[in-house]
Amino acid sequence: MSVERSPDAIVIGGGLIGSSVAYHLARAGVRTLLIEQGDLASGASGANFGNVQVEDAEFGLSLELTLRSYARFASLGDELNYEVGYRRTGNLLLIENQQQWALMQQRAARLQAAGVRAALLDRDETCRLEPGLAPETIIGALYNPEEGTLDPFKLVHAYALRGRDAGLELWTHTRVTGIQVRGGRVIGVTTARGPVSAQWVILAAGAWSHALGRTAGVELPVEWVHGEALITEVLPTTARNAMTTAAFFEATEGAEEQSVGFCLRQRPRGNVMLGEAARVTRRLGRESTPAALPAVAAEARRWLPALRRAAVIRSWAIPVAFVPDSRPLLGPVDGVAGLLVATGLKSTIILTPVVGELVAGMVTGATQDPRLAEFSPTRTL
Amino acid sequence: MPDVIANHLQVELAIVGAGPAGLAAAAEASDLGVPVTLIDLFPRPGGQYFKPTPAELDGESGAHLSPLLDRLSQADMRVISDTAVWGIFPEGEGYLLCLYGPVGTPRRLLARKVILAPGAHDRPVPFPGWTLPGVITAGAALTLVKHQRLLPGRRFLLSGTGPLQLVLARHLLDAGGEVAAVLDANPFPWRGWRHARAAWGQWERLGEGWAAWRSLRKADALLRWGHVVRRAEGEGQVEQAIIGPVDGGTDEAVAVDRIAVDTICLGHGLAPSVQLARQAGCEHRYDPDQRAYLPVRDESLQSTLPGLFVVGDGAGIGGKDVAQWEGRLAALAAAAQLTRSVAADRIAAVRRELARQRRFAAVLIDLFPASAHLGDLLTDDTVLCRCEEITVGEIRRVVAEGAETLNAVRMVTRAGMGRCQGRMCGGPVSELLARELGQPVEALGQVTPRPPVVPVPLEGLLEEEA
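ok -> structure tokens follow
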């Protein structure tokens, strides 16, 4: 990038959110540079199960945005003129005990009130939908037939590709070493390729956002887990729906011990993804650990006994960002004009289109919704 | 003596792989009083070089293949056969090895020192039609005909490079097969005379090559240098091969021949099996001569991880003699780290012999390099990644759309994400990408193998048997 022609906006992080923000900015005519430390989608965006999920959204504004974003998926492939692999599959939140049943009952009612076709199923109904499930493990499920899946790598690739068509500049394998602030205003970033000035900086770096925020003097309330999952060889139809244990909704955040929350998604080709072991950490590592793999395997076998002989071909591990109050960090940073944050989304894929549009609108002035203040990255938790 | 603490078997020295390198390492360590635990993927030790013929076909023990195999019955050697090591993790001052084998096999093993001797696999070289039934690797063909006494076809075409092709041709002929042609991608080794000094004394191996050559002449097989199979054709099965010069253009621009065969054996040499060493975290660098990533090692063959050694073909193709002397050298260093006293003159003697063997191995690499021109033959509809069925055209498309690294191509196309985890297609995809981008392979980044580095049943990952 030539020095005499600086970008108007710099997006840090080439994952789902960063690529969507960059695409929407470029489409709006903003000169934009997207900087990614590795390959596109090489952080948590490439390590998820590709679920386009509604059922687990936080109520209130999060759910409203989730539903607004969901409406865009059916035509997303056309909008981007790229096959991103979107299809509807259905989703099950698996219920194991009465406490979870009560939580899911409340959730079903509130989702239905918002217009979601969520339904509470008993054990028999659940096992009819997914005959592979161990009946003795579950008492029911919260079901939404309209949820789906896509290929997150292809979505990020498509946003970058179409963003470039609109003038987006992309630097991969380039580390941002700091966000530069002068007189309470962002003035640019320093990178491994030298400094770049810009009026706007959008931080969308997931777990890496915390350290980058500090370079601008901001302590963002983003934390992360070391998340680990694995994938089997191609199997015959094992599960049509995505599945997640409802235990996620009763889990206490911040456990230092490793915990395993069962989740499953069968890819279109037939490989089954199984997760997830998680441990809260302050390290940013990607190593698979010898304790996590057997823990995920044991949990998967408990839910779907037929998987016990399925060949596992790979595992992965990545820092996955979360915010302790389960609401995203989305919007301007108080005290640093021109610095925006977009990270810590609970269910990232489904929010990707609308968050990209909203954040781009914060730069162009098109986003004018005072309710978004509840997602302020500098709020007190 | 092995000891079980916290469900983990604890040992001083674990050796992974019971081919020439692993066996020699085990013998040397044992000579120095280090008890050895040898883990091998196959039901019987020996690796590919000392592969015993099944007892029901042969009746012999297989010990005649190498005296090293006799050593395994010693009290201080424990052999864990038919067992995969699917991950290695640093643990305390040693390493945790994750194992999966038959009932009763320990699942975890803590080793203070580790010698990896994983060997190599056939280098896959895709060309149009290579996924047709009837196209097999030279290594697979040799195993079938030599060890299983099975002839994998009737009329054969061999395409590849190096003396192993001649050995295979001779076995096929002896078993009653018809060898229509042997093609070597490299020119006739005129330059061989320059290597006369290095080859001096290697009479057994030179004699083997000469005998194979003579049987082929007698059988009237077509022998062509600088030629390869350019395309395979047939209805659901190889029926004919289109052969021509390796560095030519289109079929019209060069003289091509059609040969009716039912089996094509591809022998483009070997690729080191580096998955376990890479998963463990050993640093690897690209070696343009071997066209492979190889572990970085110090002079005692220790990797960049302390106490973890990599030896034999898995650290760079050198053949069974280089492998054995490397195994011995690493065992001496591991024994010294385990505070055994090691005689300086033994180390010097092993180093000398290793240097001599490496000189001869270098000759073969110089005369029969993996050909750089094979990528010219690929068409957009050639499948490159067989597990995920990804074609050359799909990879070219994402490169045109901006993908610039091996990892980026892999993520968007899923090439290399299937059952083999890139063991087969990783090299060809890198080389295609390098050609498309006009960059050296080493500029495209690496993909680190993740555990399990071999497919393991879900229950096999558990620390205890179910």
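Confidence is low (pLDDT under 50) at residues 1-5 of chain B.
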